[in-house]
Every structure is written in structure tokens, then in C-alpha cells.
Write a structure and sequence with these properties.
The protein is of the alpha+beta class. It has 28 helices and 18 strands.
Length: 748
């Protein structure tokens, strides 16, 4: 009886005091925690302005003229998309999996919290989480990684406060877009736009049910459900998402059943500044934009940052033309490299000039190349002795090397890898729309990962006979010569006393044959040095240099007679811009590659254009075009007719430098000029003879294949029309008798 009274007394106390306290106390603790979080006791909360403009790193996008994203600059590879740019499958998968009652709560889902509490009390870990999409967004934007469990509890309450504020500031659709734009899907796929491109080569609005489910499945744990590393785990997680979509009536059972067994088909696009098209151009553009950003300030007064401000840079590059250009360079260089290997087979000092001795090669080529290498710089930072450094460079190690048949793994010493890479021939190509100055394609080299040097803008090489048109143009501008003017094919002497030389200068023809006469058309078509020397002696070097300057050549040009043979070193970029003057009726337009720059909201920050400057009158320029057509019709550019089958009007000039170190071809049609250079990085690496080492063999085939691809592409509208005749016609004779040309003569 006594025990019964004690039991009843205990129950009365329990229900009267202890049970209410057990309920009220946690509530009071929660209220206290919320109060502390809301009032900054545990650290500041973002203010209204921060919620309106949350700090987000957005990648700068590089966009072609045909609206293709060429690449991005970023700290985080993130590009913003709006809600209406998201696939409905993606939205449905997100809500079904991460927050079923998303549209029914105000940032905190109390039903889910009760479920979580039940799971804690019962030990059941499969009842699901309690964080809403809005809470997850708050965590992504504003929370630091907690250092302890106590910090994580504090952080959780702050997330609650922030989530409710976000819900007041933004619509549900905006919150979904913000969440997907912010989430890191790994492999440099930050945000849904990057993830769609990297994993499935598509856009967020085009994601399929399976693709959407795969990406949303990653939201639980992107490392654990990484499709590149754990495909089966990712598939199982994707199937859970599909089941959730059925549960929430976003998907039918029949469709789900057909998808469950379907494998995940990735279309992975590696994000790397060495990957994709226009790699050399993008690297040059990076420098241009960095200089631009220093001079520009955003709405907050800070300088623009190309890695986080989400700029949109609209370029003049045509993605289709760029792809054709890169393919043409690749196709020809692969074949030319094979010829180069065969050409040097059996030579002890291959592929270096045969006059060089082993000691000279080591001292002047190999050792400087070693000291320029990244490996050497890292080793020297360790303060090792010279002997130890050379031991390291001579010790074979595992290495991945570039080849035209793909990269391959091997064991090779660093010094031998340098010798291996010295063997490679390189090329550069730039294509410019003559009437606007828009650069349409830019190929700086053969492989940006392995060879960083840009042969379009950074490199300057001897231009050889491609410089001769400037001499002809100067003479025509001064004297209005007809292409039919006959000049004796005899050696011209530049007397030392009259030209300030140490000795007389007497240019020779490549074949050392003289006699008879050549018209100017014949002289340029066959690149006769005697004819160029004759004109140079008439017009003088200073006049030629002045004209070249007006046509955009800024490189040093020596005012000496040998300039008539193209001894100057000029960049491919400058030469293409200068030749574009001929294609543009004598008007020079400085080439450029950015049309406009917008901020992340689409506001135009700056537009770019260039004004034409008259260099030659339309008539005199047409005479020059006629001369340059002769190179293609009857001279060293003739294979464009008989091999590549072009029937439209084409003008251009081949060029070959001393010892065949550089091969050039610059050709143009009325709307487009394209310049090509081919050679080795080191000028001692070259073909031994003119047959394979001339511009017509090294560079012209790239131009021919590129233009074939451009003309064949139905999405590229390039005319095959004639060069426009000047108003009023031409007052000099153009139609000369060409019957006495010797078609098998080589140019120099």
C-alpha cells in the first residue's frame, strides 16, 4: 500500500513538474539560441545589402562571334543562369529529393525537423535530413566550416535566421536558381551551367531526366557520388532521385522503370586552359583583359577582376573558322613532321644545321634550353651544386610526352626530353576579315599544353620574300608602274660608298640564273631578287619603311639594301594586318579581337572598333592586287590552283628565309586575309634544302586546306567573288604576256 502511494506521488510530480520542464526547457533553449544567433551574439549576420548582393565568384566568359563559349577565366568556374534557363526535370528532381515541401515553408521545415528528432531518439538514420534548400543555400553563401560540434550547432541556428531572411528577400524560383548556381559539383564544375557542360556537354535547359537526376544526386555528397570516380555509386544515387520523383508525382512509374537500368552516359569535357579551341588566343586575351581591368572600375569603385566578376567578353573569333584553322595546322604539321624525321634519318647531328659541331649544339642550344626549363628553376631553388643538377638532368625518369599520335608514357632523362622536343616543327596562323579588321582565327602553335610560345603575336621571324610586296607597292605608289614594266634580270650593285656599307652589296637570285627581262608580275611571281633589288635602289629603304609603318608594321626595319630580301624580323600578326590593306582596297584597319565587354548583368562596359586609314589609292592598290594574283596564277603559289582546285581570285605571296629556317605564305581573297608561318623554334633546326624548306611546302598547304574547309562549311558565308575594280578603272596596262614564265623555278 505504501509503495502504491509512493508510485502515485511520483507520477503526480512527473506530470506536474518534470514533464512540462522537459518540454519547456528545450523550447526555451532553442528560443535563447535563436535570440543569440539573430542578435549577433555568435557572430555577425549578413545585412540587407549582403542578402541582395551575396558575394559570388563568377567566371568571365569568352564568347565567339557565332555565340560559342570559347573558354573562361575563373577562381571558381561558375556562370550565372536564370530560373527560366533551367530544365523542369532538374527543378523537379531537386525539390523531390532535397525539399519536398519547398513551396510550403518559409525557410524552415518544422515537419522535417520533427522527423529528424524522431530519428535521433529512435536511432533510425534513414528518416532523412531536416535542412531545406534555403538553409543549404544559407550555408553555402555565409557559413564558415565549423571547428567543433558546438560551432556547428551555433552555425545551424544562424542558418535558420539567414534562411528566413532569404525567403523574405527572394522568390522561390530565385532561391532555386541561386542554389544551383552556387553548388560545387567538383571537377571545376561550380554551378549548374558548368556542371551541365563538363559532365554532359549541354546546357541547363537541355538536361534530360537522367542527367538531371545524376546531378541532383551529387548534391548529397559530390565527392562520394562523383561519376568520374564512382560511377556505380552515382548510378544508385541517381536511381534514388528517380524514385523520389515518382513519390512526389513528378515522374511516372513506367518512365522510371525504363530509366533505372539505363547506364549513366557521360560526355565529359575537361576544364583546362590547355583544352578546347583557341587556346593561344585565350591566353593572349587574358593579358589584354588584365590590362583593361586595371583601368576600369565597377559600381563599388573597385577595379574589375576577370576571375570573379562574371564579365562577358564578346570576341571577333569565329568558332567554326577557328576549328578549321586548328585542324588544317594539325593535319599538315603531322605530315610535315614525318617528312622531317625521314629527311634527317642517319645524320649524326640531326636535326641541327650540318655545319654545327656537337660542342656548339650543346653550348648554344641544349644548355640554354635546360636553363629556361621549369624543372631547372625548381632544382636551382634547392641550392644544389652544378654537378648534382646535371646528374638530375641526365637521370631517366617517368615522363609523359607529346606526339602527333597522342601522348605517351616513357622513361627518359630530362635532357633527352629537351632534345626530343627540339625536333618538332611549329606553325602559326591568323585570319583577318579585311573590311573590318576582325580577327577570325588565331592558331599560335601546335599544342598549348606542351608549347606555350605564341607564334602569332609573341614571335618575330625573318619574313623573307613576303616583304617584297611592300617594295613593289612603294614603287607603284611613287611611280605608278604597270605590272607589265620590264626590268633586266641582272644583278644590282649597292655601292658601299653610296649606301654607307662596309662592302658592295650584290643580291643573288636563288637559282643564280640571270639574263633577259622580267615584267614586275613575273618578278614577283617568281620572287626574283634582282627585280626587288632594282626597285629598292629606285625607291630607297626609307620610303619602303614609311609605307610598311602605315600598314601596321611596328617591328624594327633596318634601312639597308638587304631589306629588299626580307631580312627583317616581323610578327605574323603584323604581316597579316599589313596584307589586309591590299585586300581592303588600300585601307589599313588595325586588327582587333574584342567587339565588346559586358558586366554580369549584360550592361555594356566598352565597345571596340577601328577606323580605316588610306595607305594606297584604290587604283594603285588594285595594281598591287593584280601583281599578287600573279604569284598564285603563275608563280610559287600555283599549287592552290592545280592541287587544291581553287578557281576564284586569290592573291598572295610565299616566303622562305635564309637556310630555309622559315616558311611563309600570306594569301587573301576579297573578304579574308590569312597568314601562315612554319618552322622550328630554334632556327638551327630546319630542312637541309629548299625543296622541302620553302614556304610553298611548309606553309602554303595549311592555307589551302584551311580555305577549303572554310568554303565548304555551309555555316560560313565567305564570297568567292572578284576583287573590286576601282571606280574609273585602272589607267595602266595589266594584261601582260606571261608566256615566257618558267613554271618549275623555285622562289626564295
Amino acid at each position: 500500500m505504501k509503495n502504491r502511494h509512493i508510485h502515485i506521488l511520483f507520477l503526480n510530480l512527473l506530470f506536474k513538474y518534470f514533464l512540462p520542464a522537459a518540454i519547456i526547457l528545450p523550447v526555451l533553449i532553442i528560443i535563447c539560441c535563436v535570440f543569440c544567433a539573430a542578435n549577433g551574439v555568435w557572430g555577425p549576420l549578413p545585412d540587407f545589402q549582403e542578402l541582395e548582393n551575396p558575394e559570388t565568384n563568377l567566371a568571365t566568359e569568352i564568347i565567339s562571334e557565332d555565340n560559342i563559349v570559347l573558354g573562361r577565366y575563373f577562381y571558381e568556374n561558375r556562370t550565372h543562369v536564370e530560373y527560366d534557363e533551367l530544365s523542369p526535370f532538374l527543378i523537379n528532381a531537386l525539390i523531390a529529393t532535397e525539399d519536398e515541401r519547398f513551396f510550403n515553408h518559409s525557410g524552415i521545415d518544422f515537419i522535417a525537423l520533427i522527423r529528424v528528432l524522431k530519428g535521433v531518439l529512435t536511432g533510425n538514420q534513414n528518416l532523412g535530413g531536416g535542412s531545406t534548400i534555403t538553409q543549404q543555400l544559407a550555408k553555402m553563401f555565409f557559413s564558415q566550416k565549423p571547428r567543433s560540434k558546438i560551432d556547428r550547432i551555433k552555425q545551424k541556428f544562424k542558418e535558420w535566421i539567414i534562411a528566413t531572411r532569404i525567403e523574405r528577400q527572394y522568390s522561390k524560383n530565385e532561391i532555386i536558381a541561386m542554389y544551383l548556381n552556387r553548388f560545387d559539383f567538383l571537377n571545376l564544375a561550380v554551378g549548374i551551367k558548368s556542371a551541365s557542360k563538363i559532365y554532359f556537354n549541354t546546357t541547363p535547359d537541355s538536361l534530360s531526366i537522367q542527367e538531371s537526376a545524376t546531378l541532383i544526386g551529387m548534391a548529397k555528397n559530390p565527392s562520394l557520388y562523383n561519376p568520374l570516380r564512382r560511377l556505380e555509386k552515382t548510378k544508385k544515387r541517381r536511381n534514388i532521385v528517380l524514385n523520389q520523383m515518382v513519390k512526389n508525382k513528378y515522374l511516372s512509374e513506367n518512365i522510371k522503370d525504363s530509366l533505372l537500368l539505363t547506364p549513366i552516359v557521360l560526355k565529359y569535357n575537361k576544364v583546362d586552359h590547355n583544352e578546347g579551341i583557341a587556346t593561344y588566343f585565350r591566353e593572349h586575351l587574358r593579358g589584354f583583359l588584365s590590362k583593361w581591368a586595371v583601368k576600369r572600375k565597377n559600381e563599388t569603385g573597385e577595379k574589375y577582376n576577370i576571375y570573379k566578376d562574371g564579365l562577358r567578353v564578346y570576341t571577333t573569333i569565329n568558332a567554326k573558322m577557328q576549328a578549321h584553322a586548328e585542324q588544317a595546322v594539325k593535319n599538315h604539321l603531322k605530315k610535315l613532321q614525318d617528312k622531317f624525321y625521314v629527311h634527317w634519318e642517319g645524320f649524326e647531328n640531326a636535326p641541327y644545321d650540318t655545319s654545327w659541331r656537337v660542342g656548339q649544339i650543346d653550348t648554344l642550344i641544349i644548355i640554354p634550353a635546360i636553363k629556361r626549363s621549369e624543372r631547372y628553376r625548381k632544382i636551382r631553388d634547392q641550392n644544389l651544386s652544378d654537378e648534382k643538377v646535371w646528374d638530375i638532368f641526365n637521370n631517366p625518369v617517368e615522363m609523359s610526352l607529346f606526339s602527333w599520335d597522342g601522348r605517351f608514357d616513357t622513361i627518359i632523362s630530362p635532357i633527352d626530353s629537351i632534345k626530343y622536343y627540339n625536333y618538332f616543327l611549329h606553325s602559326g596562323l591568323i585570319s583577318i576579315e579585311s573590311s573590318t579588321g576582325h580577327i577570325k582565327s588565331w592558331v599560335g602553335g601546335i599544342n598549348h599544353e606542351e608549347f606555350k610560345y605564341d607564334h602569332v603575336k609573341d614571335g618575330k621571324r625573318q619574313v623573307g620574300s613576303t616583304f617584297k610586296p611592300f617594295i613593289y607597292a612603294t614603287a607603284i605608289d611613287q611611280f605608278k608602274y604597270s605590272p607589265c614594266l620590264k626590268v633586266p634580270n641582272v644583278q644590282v650593285i649597292f655601292e658601299k660608298e653610296n649606301w654607307g656599307l662596309d662592302e658592295d652589296y650584290i643580291p643573288e637570285n636563288a637559282n643564280k640564273k640571270y639574263g633577259g627581262e622580267f615584267t614586275l608580275t613575273q618578278g614577283l611571281a617568281k620572287s626574283k631578287n634582282t627585280i626587288s633589288a632594282y626597285l629598292m635602289k629606285r625607291v630607297k629603304p626609307r620610303k619602303v619603311i614609311n609605307l610598311a609603318r602605315k600598314m601596321g608594321i611596328q617591328s624594327y626595319l633596318p634601312a639597308v639594301p638587304s631589306l629588299c630580301l626580307g631580312t627583317a624580323e616581323v610578327s605574323l600578326f603584323e604581316m597579316a594586318g599589313a596584307y589586309a590593306t591590299f585586300a581592303n582596297e588600300g585601307l589599313y584597319i588595325e586588327p582587333y579581337f574584342v567587339s565588346r565587354i559586358e558586366d554580369k548583368n549584360g550592361v555594356v562596359l566598352e565597345s571596340f572598333s577601328q577606323s580605316p586609314i588610306e595607305v594606297l589609292s584604290a587604283e594603285k592598290n588594285y595594281i598591287m592586287v593584280n601583281l599578287l594574283q600573279g604569284v598564285v596564277n603563275q608563280g610559287s603559289g600555283g599549287r592552290l590552283r592545280w592541287h587544291y582546285g581553287f578557281e576564284n581570285e586569290i592573291a598572295g605571296k610565299t616566303g622562305t628565309t635564309q637556310n630555309h629556317s622559315d616558311g611563309w605564305f600570306i594569301g587573301f581573297v576579297p573578304e579574308l586575309v590569312t597568314a601562315v608561318w612554319t618552322g622550328a623554334d630554334n632556327r638551327a633546326v630546319r630542312f637541309r634544302d629548299l625543296h622541302l624548306g620553302q614556304g610553298a611546302e611548309m606553309a602554303l598547304p595549311i592555307w589551302g586546306e584551311y580555305m577549303q574547309k572554310v568554303y565548304e562549311d555551309p555555316l560560313i558565308d565567305l564570297s568567292k567573288g572578284d576583287f573590286p575594280l576601282p571606280e574609273g578603272g585602272v589607267s595602266v596596262l595589266l594584261d601582260c604576256d606571261q608566256s615566257n614564265l618558267i613554271n618549275n623555278e623555285e622562289e626564295f
